[in-house]
Amino acid sequence: MTDVKHYIGHRQRVKEKVLKSSENTFADYELLEALLFLGQPRIDTKPLAKELLKKFPSFSEVFLAPPEELKTIKGVGDASVSTIKLVQIIAERLGKETLDTRFSVGNTDQIIRYCRLKLIDPKVEQFHVFFLDGHHQLITEKVHQKGTIDQTVVYPREIIKEALTAGATWLILAHNHPSGNCTPSDADIALTHHIMSAGEKLGIGVYDHFVFSGATYTSLRKKGLI
Fold first, then answer.
1. DSSP assignment, residue 185?
2. Which of 63, 91, 119 represents a domain boundary (last residue)?
């Protein structure tokens, strides 16, 4: 009976901490613990949260893991998986809305945060294109291609065609390296220059190309490669 009272008191303290504290005061396992007991209100979810962080190498990868992988951990069922996946969807939606309403080309933090959500999957390479108008305002964003663990096929002519359709005059490119290294490859640099060349005569430029690997990234513009 004492254990039950202790557990109930602990959960209440966690709820109070959520209401009173900022994100930086929580350890990763505490955030997962608080999230998981929404889906499983009758069990102590701290051990479950710690098991998830043991299996997956980072906090973000818990949310990006496929449902079948999450369920390999004892105690993680449909309720826990749906809660975890709902948070992933909400995070992406918030990131997209912030991007739509606050983006400015002079401050690309919004795109970087959004790309970290979209491109953090370590298993598949993806190539995103952000289309901007002449005032550097975001028109739309599109996943141009999804590939395999180490390669995706990108067609510069298709990107320029989509830019013309959207009425864009600037592009921001972003893709991920599942290898774990965000250093632009020779192929990345050549592709960027190819897209720049294809768009130049049509008045379409490339403002930047970001290469992501997990939470880290490299800007080709800052590297002097554009």
1. P
2. 91
Q: How far apart are alpha carbons 177 and 61 in whole angstroms?
A: 15
For residue 3, the one-letter residue type is D
Q: H-helix or E-strand containing 173?
A: strand 170-176
Does one domain contain both 65 and 111? no
What is the per-residue pLDDT across 16-59, written as a single tens digit (0 to 9) for each? 766 666 556 788 888 898 888 887 877 888 899 999 999 987 88
Question: 100 lies in a domain?
Answer: no
Q: With H, G, I as helix, E, B as strand and everything else as coil, classify residue 222.
A: coil
3-state secondary structure of 13: helix
Number of domains in the chain: 2
Q: Are residues 117 and 182 in the same domain?
A: yes
Question: How far from 36 is each of 22, 31, 93, 175, CA to CA, in Å?
Answer: 19, 9, 21, 31
What does the alpha-carbon distance between residue 140 and residue 170 come to, in Å, rounded to a whole number? 11
pLDDT in tens, 141-152: 888 766 554 556
CATH number where 151 lies:
3.40.140.10
Q: Is 8 exposed, middle or buried (0-12, 13-18, 19+ CB in 10 A)?
A: exposed
Residue 43: give the domain boundaries.
Answer: 2-91
Residue type (1 letter), 215: A
Spatial distance between the Cα atoms of 178 and 152, rounded to a whole number of angstroms? 11
Give percent of the chain with pLDDT exceeding 70: 80
> d(Cα 64, Cα 211) in Å, to the nearest integer?
19
CB 144 within 8 A of CB 179: no
Structural domain contains residue 224 = no
